Amino acid sequence: MEAEGVIVVRELDLKKDLLEVEDLERRCEVGNSGKISLFTDLHGDPISRVRHSPAFLMLVAETAKEKEIVGLIRGCIKTVTCGKKLSRNGKINTNELIKPVPVYTKLAYILGLRVSPSHRRMGIGLKLVRQMEKWFGENGAEYSYMATENDNLASVKLFTDKCGYSKFRTPSILVNPVFAHRLRLSDKVTVIRLSPSDAESLYRKRFSTTEFFPRDIDSVLNNRLSLGTFLALPRGSYSADTWPGSDRFLSDPPESWAVVSVWNCKEVFTLEVRGASLAARALAKTTRIVDRALPFLKLPSVPELFRPFGGHFLYGLGGEGRSAGKMVTVLCAHAHNLAKELGCGVVATEVSNREPLKSGIPHWKWLSCDEDLWCIKRLGEDYSDGSVGDWTKSPPGLSIFVDPREV
């Protein structure tokens, strides 16, 4: 049965559609099988997860006759790094240091495709994707990508078999609980909070050639949801009082250092674990009681995940030097303590499977995802820069930059 002719796709009318959209989201949440599942509450703002992007759109699909909303999709567009090339700043001088510079492309992102369980296998998902891609093309996007769980076979099949997407990257989502006690930071490391302008300078000079790096990184760092950028250094190198600024720091950095920024997802959405047995809930509660009573033992405890909880997302993670991994661990502990102060249940990040600093990120395996699947599609025939060619066919690099505005 086809949806053509009986389904109308239109832009979301927030005031008119809110209650129906929220109901559809609830009915589409994974978890009806009786297994443990994760539910999301968008706080009455269905576009909250894309509204901070430079350009965004949400579409709904409704029946032409009954005017019932039976599907929805969100999309956003930004400019990101898709590769790099060498530059001499326009000068021809063999003695001049040649450095890589980013090659940018206009990239679209699809998020939150939902189709009512009662209206599946009618072509509604495909119709929503095609309509969103039309908007992408009208706004100059050269590529479109989406993320899904590797085992979400229906989603993978729709995008790869019917929509022309190809499997592209498989980053890891790493999630760590927030304990009842603060974590101790190493006394061999100093953590400095950078100003947004200092952070922007550091990111542009060291990480702008990282795949998916947003050209408007300044907008991300200055967003009200960005809680700060933190730099870890060997104690004795610099302090908050002696910090010379990113430009001077990068001209003569210490042997090892690391950086990370923190995004407040709690203001965008909350999560809740459902489907856990009474025994599992009781065990989780017991770990919290013991953890609070004997914090010096540093026993692992399960935070209250069975009612709505918020989280912080770590982005822009990077560093240099043989001790950079240990510095990342300190930054994660610092981020944990910040999350505890603000009442969050978890701290999460997403990194390339090949990320050299991945081993320094503490996480619980049962809360994390080893392979998130990103699929990509080229929307146009022309390339913005011939030095990269078709990005969809490029091999993965060591790192990726995950934009917190799309979490």
UniProtKB/TrEMBL annotation:
<dbReference type="InterPro" id="IPR000182">
    <property type="entry name" value="GNAT_dom"/>
</dbReference>
<dbReference type="Pfam" id="PF00583">
    <property type="entry name" value="Acetyltransf_1"/>
</dbReference>
<dbReference type="GO" id="GO:0016747">
    <property type="term" value="F:acyltransferase activity, transferring groups other than amino-acyl groups"/>
</dbReference>
<protein>
    <recommendedName>
        <fullName>N-acetyltransferase domain-containing protein</fullName>
    </recommendedName>
</protein>
<keyword id="KW-0808">Transferase</keyword>
<keyword id="KW-0012">Acyltransferase</keyword>
<dbReference type="InterPro" id="IPR052810">
    <property type="entry name" value="Plant_NAT"/>
</dbReference>
<comment type="similarity">
    <text>Belongs to the acetyltransferase family.</text>
</comment>
<feature type="domain" description="N-acetyltransferase">
    <location>
        <begin position="7"/>
        <end position="186"/>
    </location>
</feature>
<dbReference type="InterPro" id="IPR016181">
    <property type="entry name" value="Acyl_CoA_acyltransferase"/>
</dbReference>
